[in-house]
Amino acid sequence: MASYPVRLVLLSCICPLVFFSALFLFSFISSGLYLFFFFSIVSICCCLLAFTLSHKQTPATPDTSASATTNTEVIPSSSSSSSSPRSGKLTYDVFLSFRGEDTRKNFTDHLYTALWQKGIHTFRDDEELVRGESIAPNLLKAIEESRYVIVVFSPNYADSAWCLDEVAEVADCMKEMGTKVLPVFYHVDPSEVRRQTGEHFGKAFEKHQKRYKKEPNKVQRWKDALFQVGNLSGWHLQDG
Predict the structure, then answer these.
(1) Active-site position among 144, 166, 169, 192
(2) Side-chain half-sphere CA neighbours of 30 within 13 A
């Protein structure tokens, strides 16, 4: 994937800010709508900058096969205990993990569009999966074949066993394959994610403890994954 200059990323984010500021000054949009666009654009700009800078620090490889070889070499021998071996193949630049009802039509949609406009091949479940296919295996495969994963933790993220299975797989790939993970804490506190406490993650896990009473290892795997990913440096967004 091509690397994009930091100046180009900044310019592409500043232009819409100027545009929406002008609309607000001339009273074409309300202050609430302006703040929504402002914080969304700033948040996406931060994600793009981090992705661009971290990608520049990664040595470039001449072709996909060389890249796959590099990633295969970092898999520890303990991964042989997994039910299926990691392929080491890289198909996507970014995998987006998010709770649809929280962010699909706002933050995640803006971020997804911005990444594609920069030529960053991004996987989002509703875009890539063929209708009628078995979804879970395809999602797990897409995570394994992604160079980066952006996890958007939102208020209802932990309510979904599907999302928790995703983040558990992300944590495994981070440990076994060196997958780079960038967390976004969207209207949730990072400590709530790490410790599974508070109004959102705490209550969600109270329900999971009861529902999966006979599968304690499953719930513990989710908790371990949330601690690992939630402990990474990311973005804490409370507005927008």
Answers:
(1) 166
(2) 3
